[in-house]
Amino acid sequence: MALTSALFTGVSGVNSNGNAMNVIGDNIANVNTVGFKSSRSVFFDLLSADVGGSKVGLGSRFAAATRLFTQGGVETTNSLTDLAIQGNGFFVVQNNQGTNFYTRAGQFNLDKDGFLVNAEGLKVQGVKLDSSGNPVTAPTNISIDNGQLVAPTATTAIDMAVNLDGAAAVPALALPADAAGTSAAPNTWFGGSNFSTVVTIYDSLGAPHDVTFLFRKTATANEWEYRVLANGADIAGGTAGQLQQISGAGGRLAYNPDGTLDLTAPTNTNVSAIGPLTWADGAAAQTINPASIRFTGSTQYSLPSSVAVLNQDGVPPATITNISIDKDGVISGLFSSGRSVPLFQLALADFANPQGLSHVGNTLFSESTESGQALLGSPGSGGFGSVLSGTLELSTVDLATEFVKMITTQRGFQASSRTITVTDSMLEEIANLKR
């Protein structure tokens, strides 16, 4: 009886080590598989039996191949849609039947329809964002429309910092009458000014309009007046070839004796509004309120007049030219106007027991009763890792470790096989006792 049990004990060792070799082979075969997580063999000993009053084991059993979800190294690529997760979480991809799968392999690309997909065509999931970056949908397919337009934004504010030459003289020529709608030839305006600069603003249709700020030194010490003009051809009812004053009245800038802007002067806090403007192209009437015309940082030093800061908040219409993906998984569209608009944020999933996930191949996993339900979130929040664009997570297989395991597993297999042959020899000796 004892010798017969020894045969089955040897068989159990052969089977266990054979299965372990399969696990090692699978690991080695996937040493270059992006996002692959290596597995390790788990053995149990079999129930022992009483042999001569002592407990003797009956061999081993291959219990499971446990997948180790450790962080893999990352490799830099030349594709911004190649993504790696630094930390916890899985990318969520969905097939055409609406079934979700989970993966650490971020080899994604945009297909012909603009969907972000993996190599098998499964669509990557994310939440759609509004222009302020706030989510507006539940997780859905990420789609980038190459023909997507961003609407124009009419200019509502102008920021300007100028240095007006403190040594300049009052021009001999006078400016035209100070009133909205005053029109004159350009040389009439410029002949009565010391300095001018042009700001391009945008109307509600996104059309650009060049607006000219003229600055003229007055007879009052440390004081300048300015006018705001636009091309007559751009204004409904305007005269082509002339510049028309578009502020209700010109403004004044007062400076302190040290050349800094006198912020207490009423003329610096009661600037006339620009508009309302009625453009010839049919755009909506446009007004830039006085509080939104700012000269913060302007100076009056004895240096040639110049512009240090010139900004306005309008943008023209534009088409998407590229995308970017940041560490929080926010996919932004880069538009031809230079504007960046958030479009989607990648969705990540995590599980109470990732080792319980069902491996379905192609570096994909599916939810199971052992893993628990998927916990969805966004990169960089709630314990989820961050996303690295232009990188891929490498396989976690350590070849040196796998080769060492291969040697020990091979020896275990040989030893178990030897147990069978030795036991067979012993049984043969017993069979020969009758001779």
Task: Report on this structure.
The protein has 435 residues and is an alpha+beta fold. The chain has 3 domains: 2-70 and 395-434; 74-150 and 320-393, no CATH class; 158-312, Sandwich (Tick-borne Encephalitis virus Glycoprotein, domain 1), CATH 2.60.98.20. 15% of the residues lie in helices and 34% in strands. It is built from 3 helices and 33 strands. The protein has helices at 2-29, 186-191, 399-431, and strands at 39-45, 49-51, 54-56, 60-67, 74-76, 83-86, 90-94, 100-103, 109-110, 116-117, 123-128, 140-141, 149-150, 158-163, 183-184, 195-202, 208-217, 223-231, 243-245, 251-254, 274-277, 286-288, 293-294, 306-312, 318-325, 330-335, 340-346, 348-350, 358-361, 364-366, 375-377, 386-389, 391-393. Strands 7, 8, 11, 12, 13, 25, 26, 27, 28 and 31 form a 10-stranded antiparallel β-sheet that branches. A hairpin with a 5-residue loop joins strand 9 (109-110) and strand 10 (116-117). Helix 1 (2-29) runs antiparallel to helix 3 (399-431). The radius of gyration is 38 Å and the shape is rod-shaped. The model has no long low-confidence stretch (mean pLDDT 90).
